[in-house]
Design goal:
Layout lengths: L1 H22 L3 E2 L1 H11 L1 H24 L2 E10 L5 E5 L1 H5 L12 E5 L4 E14 L1 H68 L5 H36 L8 E2 L4 H9 L12 H22 L4 E14 L9 E13 L7 H67 L5 H35 L11
Parallel strand pairs: 1-6
Antiparallel strand pairs: 2-5, 3-4, 5-7, 7-8
Helix pairs in contact: 2-5, 3-5, 5-6, 5-8, 5-10, 8-9, 9-10
Length: about 450
């Protein structure tokens, strides 16, 4: 019996250990969230498909520059053969004595055979076609734009995911701080209820403190719900199953404040910015499109070759009327545009306007990127200062609440002082939490505007 009991307990223990390992909730760090998002985000996958599509488009244009070879074959059954009407020269060519005076002036000759077929192969090679050559350059530029578009989408994804991650951390910190405040008020309420039983405090003071505790609990639940909605947004951003729970690392204030205290230096080079590189490729694309309009005025030259094998027969390719013969031809085809009613000139002018617009877009974007970097730099400095103020303010609010609680116990302060101190403490905690979130938003913005947003994937 003891042996069976021992085995049963051992089996149950192993089962519990295995179950615990299977159902343990993984806690995601920022880097793990970013890596998961880059791999599973659906919009980023779509950008990847656009990238592959652009590569195939370039190969399609490149294929048009290679020899174009095609084969053909046909078989015809001439149910009603064509007939040819011509003067009856045969009768007129006979000696006068042999001519038939009643002969028809015209005679009908049946053309062709009952069956005819041909099989062949043809080749066409572009020798001189500037428009087609330029189209290949356009396809290459479009492929570069697709790659840059995917990089831009990935950078946006990293920034948005990191913002949600830090927002959840800040909200989690706020919930933890509110739990502390609720615990303080709850312990004070128990003391006051005991004092009320002993006749040391009024019932109205106990009731007011109860109302305050309920309000704090309701406020905390609202913040907790907001945190859950933020997690749902994070899961959606990551491509994570929204029906599954997700846990992220809680905020480490020591690491956070060390980061905030350090005056990180960020450099800015507009030509290294992905949006700027993308708009410059767009400008290059517009220039190539203008060249296409110009090249339409130039001649094109191509080489052609054709080989066919033909067969005819009155019977189905048998008998004495069955003939087979090959044909082949090679040649050059030259096309020279002469006059298009000034449409090509108008098209070139339109592309010139598009080029000027693209140049203006590049200048506007350059100014916008510079402005965004400077604003993010100022915002980071401002939020760093705000964090220090709100941290000190939170500590002060905790001290004020402790003093108010002690004075109330000594009869030196009223319940209103307690309630005001608790509200001030909660407000200070939320303000500090918001300051943490605002700082990280500014930090992410500065990373993004300086072109260093990818560093978040390896940053500790």
């Amino acid at each position: 019996m003891n042996t069976k009991l021992f085995k049963t307990i051992g089996f149950a223990s192993c089962f519990l250990l295995i179950s615990a390992s299977l159902f343990a909730q993984q806690v995601y760090s920022l880097q793990e969230c970013l890596a998961y998002a880059v791999e599973h985000n659906h919009n980023l996958k779509k950008a990847g498909y656009d990238n592959e599509k652009a590569a195939y488009a370039r190969k399609e244009v490149l294929g048009a520059l290679l020899p174009q070879v095609s084969g053909s074959a046909n078989l015809n059954d001439n149910l009603k053969k064509a007939k040819f009407i011509m003067p009856n020269f045969i009768n007129s060519m006979l000696p006068p004595a042999a001519q038939d005076p009643n002969a028809s002036k015209y005679m009908t000759i049946e053309m062709g055979t009952n069956y005819n077929t041909n099989m062949g192969i043809s080749l066409n090679q572009q020798l001189l076609n500037f428009s087609l050559f330029n189209t290949l350059e356009i396809a290459k530029t479009a492929e570069k734009m697709a790659v840059l578009g995917m990089e831009s989408s990935e950078e946006d994804l990293i920034a948005q995911t990191a913002s949600l991650f830090y927002a959840i951390q800040a909200t989690g910190y706020a919930i933890g701080q509110m739990d502390r405040s609720i615990d303080l008020v709850g312990r004070m309420l128990k003391t006051m209820e005991a004092n009320y039983v002993n006749g040391l405090v009024k019932k109205v003071d106990v009731d007011r403190l109860k109302v305050n505790l309920v309000n704090l609990t309701t406020q905390k639940n609202a913040i907790r719900n907001a945190a859950e909605m933020q997690k749902n947004l994070l899961k959606q951003q990551m491509g994570f199953d929204v029906n599954l729970p997700i846990e992220i690392q809680p905020i480490d204030l020591a690491v956070f404040e060390a980061k905030a205290a350090a005056d990180a230096q960020f450099s800015f080079f507009v030509k290294e910015q992905t949006p700027y590189r993308l708009v410059m490729e767009k400008l290059n694309l517009v220039k190539l499109q203008k060249k296409t309009a110009v090249y339409e005025n130039l001649p094109t030259l191509s080489f052609t070759a054709n080989y066919q094998y033909n067969g005819v027969s009155d019977q189905f390719f048998s008998g004495p009327t069955n003939y087979w013969y090959p044909t082949s031809v090679i040649g050059l085809s030259l096309r020279v545009p002469i006059f298009s009613g000034f449409s090509r000139k108008a098209k070139i002018s339109q592309n010139s306007m598009e080029e000027l617009k693209a140049q203006e877009d590049a200048q506007i974007l350059e100014q916008s990127l510079n402005m965004a970097f400077m604003n993010a730099r100022m915002k980071l400095d401002d939020t760093r200062h705000t964090i220090a103020l709100q941290r000190d303010n939170q500590k002060l609010a905790e001290e004020v609440f402790a003093v108010a609680e002690n004075n109330f116990a000594l009869g030196l302060s009223s319940m209103s002082d307690i309630l005001n101190a608790s509200q001030s403490l909660v407000q200070a905690q939320l303000s500090y939490s918001n300051a943490l979130n605002d700082y990280m938003k500014a930090y992410i913005d500065l990373k993004k505007t300086s072109g260093a947003i990818r560093e978040l994937m390896t940053e500790k």
